[in-house]
């Protein structure tokens, strides 16, 4: 297993368009997290899943954002009607909370630019 | 509402000396703390963690100290090496299974 994989690495979109990002976690990890990072800031929590269940979504997250993890494996993050303020690095992380609990491992992120 | 604060945006340290990165938190419910390291164009990489039942955890050149009464933790890197130049994020969670809240990061420069 090569770690957490995110696709695409870069995305440029026009304002008002919808975008979807994909995250493939480490295979045995049952937790999956989405974070957003802007310049000069730390990763900001968006949402997380345990298996296919979405456990929490940030109160600060607009309704234009939705995430799914339909089979408890990969996850998608969709942003509808993108705005310039959505430009950021979107990070996915996974961890295990089973017997061999692990810390969260991050992917390389998807950089979104809204023009 | 910044629950995890890293008040030094940057720090420069001579190679071979000790690097000390500081972090304060406001939420007394946090009981698990982590440090992540980030290089440009990469995701954060886990470095070291500490549970609130401990006050120190060591892993090679990296040691994390936790002062619960002061709501303060620090990361010590000894000796500092050029490859340590990166952004370091302090993070916390309410238990090991909860979401992780990050600080804004401190950029560490190791000088030759």
Model description:
The complex is a heterodimer of chains A (115) and B (112). Chain A has 115 residues and is mostly beta strands. Chain A is 0% helix and 49% strand. In chain A, a hairpin with a 6-residue loop joins strand 4 and strand 5 (44-50). The radius of gyration of chain A is 14 Å and the shape is globular. The N and C termini of chain A lie far apart (35 Å). The mean pLDDT of chain A is 92. By secondary structure, chain B is mainly beta. In chain B, the strands form two sheets. In chain B, strands 2, 4, 5, 9, 10 and 11 form a six-stranded mixed β-sheet that branches. Chain A binds chain B through residues 4, 31, 33, 35, 40-45, 48, 56, 91, 93, 97, 101, 103-109, and chain B through 4, 6, 9, 34, 36, 41-46, 49, 89, 91, 96-97, 99-105.
Shape of chain A: globular
Count of beta strands of chain A: 11
Helix count of chain B equals: 0
Share of β-strand residues of chain A: over 45%
**Largest sheet geometry of chain B:** 6 strands, mixed
Largest interface: A-B, 23 and 23 residues
Q: What is the terminal separation of chain B in angstroms?
A: 38 Å
Oligomer: heterodimer
Radius of gyration of chain B, taken over Cα atoms and rounded to an integer in Å: 13 Å
Portion of residues within helices of chain A: under 10%
Category from helices, strands and their pairing of chain B: mainly beta
